[in-house]
Write a structure and sequence with these properties.
With 600 residues, the protein is an alpha+beta fold. It has three domains: 8-211, Aldehyde ferredoxin oxidoreductase, N-terminal domain (Aldehyde Ferredoxin Oxidoreductase,  A, domain 1), CATH 3.60.9; 243-429, Orthogonal Bundle (Aldehyde Ferredoxin Oxidoreductase Protein, subunit A, domain 2); 435-453 and 504-595, Aldehyde Ferredoxin Oxidoreductase Protein, subunit A, domain 3, CATH 1.10.599. The protein is built from 26 helices and 17 strands. The chain starts with 7 loop residues before the first strand and ends in a 5-residue tail after the last helix.
Length: 600
């Protein structure tokens, strides 16, 4: 163990059931740090260009960061080649699984190959086993977690798993942790299903690795825990502790950034029907936190009466906006019900919500008929029809089999101009925010239209793996929560990175992600500027309420994108120059990019 790092990855080949350890390259870690960027480097080095994302050769890489397991840093990442974009795929998740992995003595796990039959991986410190999961195949995620706990006779084991959506290789399938948390976007659950890997169960009984400056690390953590209890902080984070991220339902509408009716409008007169105050009075059960976090921004909800009675979920904003606002479904119990289906069956609510909203607009415009939709009356806000379509997608039944492949594959088959209002970029549906707010950032994102924007700053946070929602609890004496995390990282590692070092590292990660995509052919659309674009509908002017008059014109977008390319060190086509790659220590990518025709 080396100052924040456990010192090794588990390297698991599911084809031949071999398990080994891969030592952390500390020289590389000083350049790539950990988490997202370190994993992306592994993906670059160990996969051939243009592999099929569902082939055994694709990797599935789970990683911690050097401060994972400390206050405000319970997040982990998973990296792979995405089956719905054919570009880099990655997703981050909070909860307890990542911390447990660090406490078990590992910085991450690399999976390659495909098991002959369903399996799950069990890790308890040095004990690592590939176990039979035939009895788990077909179970939902909560059923899988419960079965594994019973099998191991350990109620504290931390489990991530796929549900039927991953087993059926749905493009939007995700990986669920502890019932409610999700490695959601880009199809990681689909890749996991393609490997016949049902679950990963972790139990760690070790402590956090050594740190370079014990006194400073303790001081920072103690001050954080103490300050978090103060009236100043409790007041500052009142919104998160009281309402959690679902407060964005109303807050987004109040400034016209909502996504109602497939992004048609940014505000709606009935939004309070599913707003946080309504949810708190009607459905709230209890609150919970990720490892060692005092914020407690996670709020579980249950339906107490009616046809969905007993249904429960954790309705985050990012998991709710697209299945509610985007589909114009404003039933509070329906919000819980649809979220619960997505969690139980392991599908990304954000992504599949965008698919269903597109289908609703197709139905409204006559592009998809009732017959095309297997008899569903897919009108805006029709909860029953939306739930049935969701079920069909998860199980690949009827029209659901077409839609389960993802935007990139079904849009050319449907055609008829439907691509103009498909609110997606490079195959990933947009998150719960209007383009006028995110500007060019949706379009240039390395993984597609993700709300977790690609920027040097995001590559730093997703590589150290701290939580942006916990930044508000940081102790006095820091200009921002980011400065606190920088100080904690330096105390733990002893590397004394300056702000400019973090900036350079973040830029390196962003460029490596873009270089990987170019190596892979940019999803079949080259040069990158031809793919880094919005659908036509994204540039329309909003007309109602707080959103009235807000517009992100194509001209404004092109100017913003050109500025982004320039700041990144890319040419006008969105390709990093050779000089930029060399300055960022990415000269090893140049030969592959030349073979891909980057600078022709």
């Amino acid at each position: 163990m080396v100052n924040g790092y456990a010192g090794k990855y588990l390297d698991v080949n599911l084809k031949d059931n071999s398990i080994s350890t891969l030592p952390i390259d500390m020289d590389l870690a000083k350049k790539m740090v950990g988490g997202l960027t370190y994993s992306l480097h592994i993906l670059w080095q160990r996969t051939k260009p243009r592999i099929n994302p569902l082939s055994p050769e694709n990797l599935l890489i789970f990683s911690t960061g050097p401060i994972s397991g400390l206050v405000g840093a319970a997040r982990g990442t998973v990296v792979f080649k995405s089956p719905i974009t054919e570009l880099i795929g990655h997703s981050e998740c909070g909860g307890h699984w990542t911390s447990e992995l660090k406490f078990a003595g590992y910085d991450g796990i690399i999976f390659t190959g495909k098991a002959e039959n369903p399996v799950y991986l069990y890790v308890k410190d040095d004990q690592v086993e590939i176990r039979n999961a035939k009895n788990l195949w077909g179970k939902t995620t909560s059923q899988t977690e419960q079965s594994i706990m019973e099998d191991l006779n350990d109620p504290y084991v931390q489990v991530i798993s796929i549900g039927p959506a991953g087993e059926h290789l749905c493009g939007e399938a995700c990986i669920i942790q502890s019932t409610f948390h999700a490695f959601a976007r880009a199809g990681g659950g689909c890749v996991m299903g393609s490997k016949n890997l049902k679950a990963i169960a972790i139990r760690g009984t070790n402590s956090f690795p050594s740190v370079a400056d014990t006194e400073k690390t303790y001081e920072l953590l103690y001050n954080t825990a103490t300050y978090a209890k103060s009236d100043v902080i409790r007041s500052a984070i009142w919104g998160s502790t009281t309402f959690g991220s679902p407060s964005s339902q109303v807050r987004s509408a109040d400034i016209g950034r909502g996504i109602f009716k497939n992004f048609e409008e940014g505000d709606h007169p009935a939004i309070t029907q599913i707003g946080s105050p309504t949810q708190m009075r009607r459905n709230r059960v209890w609150d919970s936190s990720c490892t060692f976090c005092p914020v407690a921004c996670q709020h579980q909800s249950i339906v107490r009466s009616g046809r969905f009675v007993g249904t429960y979920c954790q309705a985050d904003w990012d998991s709710s906006a697209n299945i509610t606002q985007e589909c114009l479904m404003l039933d509070p119990d329906g919000l819980v019900y649809l979220n619960a289906i997505c969690d139980e069956y392991g599908i990304d609510a954000e992504g599949v919500g965008g698919v269903m909203a597109w289908a609703m607009e197709c139905y409204e415009k006559g592009i998809l008929t009732k017959q095309d939709l297997d008899g569903l009356d897919l009108k805006w806000g029709n909860l029953e029809a939306e739930a049935k379509l969701l079920w069909k997608i998860i199980h690949r039944e009827g029209v659901g089999s077409l839609l389960a492949d993802g935007f990139k594959y079904f849009l050319p088959k449907v055609g008829k101009g439907s691509e103009k209002f498909a609110m997606q970029i490079k195959g990933i549906g947009l998150g719960g925010y209007q383009p006028w707010l995110f500007k060019e950032r949706y379009a240039v994102n390395n993984i597609g239209g993700h709300h977790n924007i690609d920027s040097p700053g995001s590559y730093v946070s997703d590589s150290l793996l701290y939580c942006i929602f916990a930044r508000g609890i940081m102790p006095q004496g820091f200009a921002s929560g980011v400065d606190y995390y920088y100080a904690l990282f330096n105390a733990v590692t002893g590397w004394n990175f300056r702000k400019e070092d973090f900036d350079a590292f973040g830029l390196r990660g962003t460029l490596l992600g873009r270089a990987y995509n170019i190596r892979e052919g940019y999803g079949g659309v080259m040069p990158p500027c031809e793919a880094d674009v919005y659908p036509e509908k994204a540039h329309h002017a909003l007309t109602y309420g707080a959103g009235k008059g807000k517009e992100y014109t194509k001209e404004a977008f092109l100017a913003d994108r050109a500025q982004y390319y320039s700041l990144l060190g890319c040419d006008q086509k969105g390709i990093p120059t050779k000089e930029t790659l060399r300055k960022s220590g990415l000269e090893f990518t140049i030969d592959e990019l030349e073979k891909a025709g980057a600078w022709r």
